[in-house]
Predict the structure.
Amino acid sequence: MKRDRAIQWLYEELPELEAQGVLGSAETRRIRAHYGEVQGGSRRTIILTLFGILGAILIGSGIILIVGHNWEQLGRPARTVLSLSPLVAAQILAAAVLWYRPASRPWQEGSAAFLTLTIAASIGLIGQTYHIPGDLLSFLITWMLLTLPIAYLFQSALVLACYLVQVIWWLGHQNAITGEELWYWLLLALAIPYLIVAHRKRPFAPGTALIGLVACISLTIAGAMTADRAIDGLWCILFAAMFAAMYTLGAAGSESGVGLWRQPVFSYGLFGTGIFSLVLSYRDVWDSITREYTRGFEQLGGYHDLATLALITLSLACIAASLRQGFVKRGPSVLLVAASPLLAALSYAVCTSLESPVPGAVVYNGYALILSVAAIVFGVQRDSLTHVNLGLLLFSALAMLRFFDANMGFVLRGVLFIAIGIAFLTANAVMVRRRSESA
Amino acid sequence: MNRTIKIGLFALLIVAQLAVPASMIAGRESVLRNGTAHKFRTMPVDPYDPFRGRYVALRYEASTVQSEDPYTRGQKVWVAVETDEDGYAALGEISTSRPDNGDYLRLPVAYAYDAVVSFDLPFDRYYMNEYSAPEAERVVQRRAWEEDIEDIYVVVKIHRGRAVLESLYVEDQTIEDFLLTSPPQ
């Protein structure tokens, strides 16, 4: 965003500079050609889009509230007509926007969001008119399958995010014994073409960032539900693989100068790996992995096991595919993170065969330590305060967790905290001074 | 993708979107028009469903059948609907194939225990606005405690295994009329 704004500023300055003879027209053209299109949308478009969406949501919610009030004074025919009117109105509006304003993001997003809400409102209103018994699951399926095409036709990030939320909501209500919830993965796959196009055309736009974040959260929840019914402990490999895959995919698609908020897949993978390695550094966690509560490795073969293994394989494939590109863009740290699932698998194998939680905990303590040191070193080398701070954060989190485990006197803990705090401040001060010196 | 193609696809989508509520309406209108009316005696309770507005949740006296046969939970069966000597509906014989005559419902088994098979009837809610619904509940609870209101029932139209709830009656008045004429409690 900062870079875009800087370029935008430069573009705005160019006519003036040309007029004053500072630059010739040939140079101006070359500058424009060099920097290309400014991405991400100007501020005004974002604000307009947001207000368009807000308006649509308010109208939709108002309609839904009216739904809640029930129009029992009216006969059934009148109620039927009134139930369908919002939907028809939304469809007419959406068709008009599609035809007359194909390039306007606020109109497209607003009308798409409105249409999505009126579908739900209409179904709800009809349900009330005919006293139809509630069935949340089939309502959600109907709604989500009617929503998805809207997202594609209008290229609306908000509607796609709505779709992802609907899918995870549906997943949450599933009875997790029958295996039906595994259809989630198919439903999610339906959104993948959109994600790919969005990444190619508008990689760092706010809409793309939103759906990236929602998709990552959705995947995490679904992964947890799938692995929960699989063989005990497989979740540790699954999550290590998923976070590492997000990190490497994000790294492959990243660009320096773009903030972490605009690259949610990368950031999610980064934080996920860090936090997960802290989780796996606990002895108790490995204890629960090695102890067989419900299903052991000999019972491999159910749908959930297959799904989990398929997901792990898919994640590893993603890592392999994007490793090179990620290495080019982000350096050796990518390799370090990509090692996480292999470490998890190794620790899992060793711990289950030895029936001891110790190897896993030791390995991950070491791994978390290495990650934090690598982040600090990387940050110092590339002059990135963010990396140094994140590395220090991970290091101190690790230290604090271990020291909470042990029984130490308050004085000693106090001293340690002070030491960590001083380390933070010193590191930041040194970095800032170095930066101002080299400037 | 140019505009014409998009509009074409959107037209298809519109048809699909309208088809869903239209089929809901058509199916139920058909039952209401062609079905036979049955009176099911009720015992209401009032919850709140924010997505769907206020409704009175209904439970029915006639929801079980005596049967020794082993049925499993969720199993879909055909249940005959008969009328008892007071004119109210009662559930009759269960069979695993569609009966040839009479009125019947297609229902999943709720639970089967001790030679009693229990069903959740699919007309379990009656929508009213948020002021009427709790009043309706109060009126009906009075029946349970004081027994001065005898007949609270719903009229359900049944047609070829499908049921649509038509109206909720209190002592032969619709609940709406009853609330208008009875003194507020």
In short: Chain B touches chain A at residues 3, 6-7, 9-11, 13-14, 16-18, 20-21, 24-25, 28, 49-55, 122-130, 132, 164-165, 176 (CB under 8 Å). Residues 3-34 of chain B form the longest helix (32 residues). The CA atoms of residues 35 and 159 of chain B lie 4 Å apart. The longest strand of chain B covers residues 103-113.
